[in-house]
Amino acid sequence: MRYISTRGQAPALSFEEVVLTGMASDGGLYVPETVPQLSHDDLAAMAGLSYAEIAFRVMQPYVNGEIDDETFRTIVTEAYATFSHDAVVPLNQLDANHFLLELFHGPTLAFKDVALQLLGRLLDHFLKKRGERAVIMGATSGDTGSAAIEGCRHCDNLDIFILHPYQRVSEVQRRQMTSVLADNVFNVAIEGNFDDAQAMVKASFADQSFLNGTRLVAVNSINWARIMAQIVYYVASAVALGAPHRKVSFCVPSANFGNVFAGYMAYRMGLPVERFVIATNANDILHRTLAANDFSKQELKATLAPSMDIVVSSNFERLLFEAYGRDGAAVAALLERFQAEPTALADAPLARLRELFASHSVDDATILEVIREAHHRTQEILDPHTATGYRAAERERGEASVPMVTLATAHPAKFAEAVVKAGFPGVPLPPHMDDLLEREERYTVLPAELSAVQQFVVDNRR
Ligand SMILES: *Cc1c(COP(=O)(O)O)cnc(C)c1O
Question: Of 130, 249, 348, 349, which is least surrounded by CB within 10 A?
């Protein structure tokens, strides 16, 4: 198994190389050259297995023998032992055929833990094997930073530097990052906004000479290993609901499209999926593209579901590559046009996507209405991201005989603002985090200057 770029020009890589590399050198994203298949019997045999064992079986072909089975099994088992629920990602039945897949029982209460608990361990494994160290840099306005820190805090060969805009992230989100006091974790509060922080990280990736040869690693969702880890919960939940003997539909609160692309991969591996419903907030590029063939950037809107606030949906390129028949040149041309001006997909690829994907966009007022309505009907308090999914799932549900699984991407305690606006007193943090607001914090405030940030990285990396 090799990994190839969606733009067709970069060299093919091994699994190890693809984990250590972010974007392909031609600007594309890496995808597996062939899709491993799960047969009817393979799926049937997963009934009743633990999440870690299903994870091992689903991901093992992608690892391609580059980690021996026993070691990989240990890595997977340790990654998912950090979750506070025995089922790791439990299903919660809302009504006759609508289920919530609770992806928020990891250390930082959002679904990004599923991927980042694994990715940190994979990076550390490969770096140890090579006798190398690496530096992770990332900018965050929320969920990714804390999940990356939790995923790397025990990694001997990694130092992680996460930039957040000073005094512009919520207290819970800041404390989830700054209360991790591990020697290899460095939180930097930038005197600027999120875009300033992001620009400094981008510039550091573009010119890495300040690190004198130490590898710089990205942990955003363009890393293939994050997608791979997310395939697992589609398979595990569908098997729990009767696959391969019956079909399932999924509704996915979406932004960069990493999550729903993982679902598409599960489908391509052989999971019987009726359809995928993509839920967006008011930043609706995915919905506009699918519903109106309007593939264009619009200004960023700050919404009550902030982890879905995006202008461009980076992983959508991976799906376009499939829709365009794996024609890297066509994908490269389309995305070049898209960067410059509003554009549209060609008819045939769009028709192909519409066979499998539906979409729905949900604005802030509706998010609040859904939180109230869902509580009234089911007693559940949804987080605002999950609320977009709930509404989209109800709208696009389709046949009653097919279970609809809505992915619950965050715990409501993490997004108290929306919950309180919807009229609830708030939701307590789960027991293992109830002292978060008393924990000691550590972070460094720096001006929004590239040289100051890079000097800090050089001085502190181990
Ligand atoms: C990151 C995130 C999303 C969006 O996921 P994508 O993979 O970018 O589509 C949705 N909800 C929450 C809570 C998130 O943190």
Answer: 348
User: Strand 91-95 to strand 98-102: parallel, antiparallel, or no bridges (unpaired)?
Assistant: antiparallel
- With contact defined as beta carbons under 8 Å apart, do 46 and 54 qualify? yes
Radius of gyration of the chain (CA): 21
Domain 85-106+224-421, architecture per CATH? 3-Layer(aba) Sandwich (3.40)
Return the structure tokens found at 43.
Answer: 């799926």
- Res 260: pLDDT: 98
Dist. CA 334 → ligand 1 center (Å):
25
Q: Using CA atoms, how far apart are residues 349 and 51, in angstroms rounded to an integer? A: 35
Q: What residues in the chain have per-residue pLDDT under 50?
A: none
Q: How far is the CA of 255 from the centre of ligand 1 (A)?
A: 6
- Top mutation candidate among 407, 409, 411 for ligand 1, by most atoms within 8 Å of CB: 409
Q: What is the CA angle 217-218-219, rounded to 5?
A: 120
Tell me if residue 301 is catalytic: no
**Minimal-distance CA residue to ligand 1 atom 2:** 307
pLDDT of residue 379: 94
Tell me, in angstroms, the distance from the centre of ligand 1 to residue 254's CA: 6
Q: Judge whether 290 and 278 are in contact, CB under 8 Å.
A: yes
d(C-alpha 274, C-alpha 251), whole Å = 11
Mutate which of 143, 231, 318 to test ligand 1's pocket (most atoms within 8 Å of Cβ)? 143
Q: Which amino acid is at 408?
A: A
- Give residues (CB < 6 A) around ligand 1: 110, 112, 143, 221, 253-259, 307-308, 385, 409-410
**Gap between the Cα atoms of 347 and 327, Å rounded:** 15
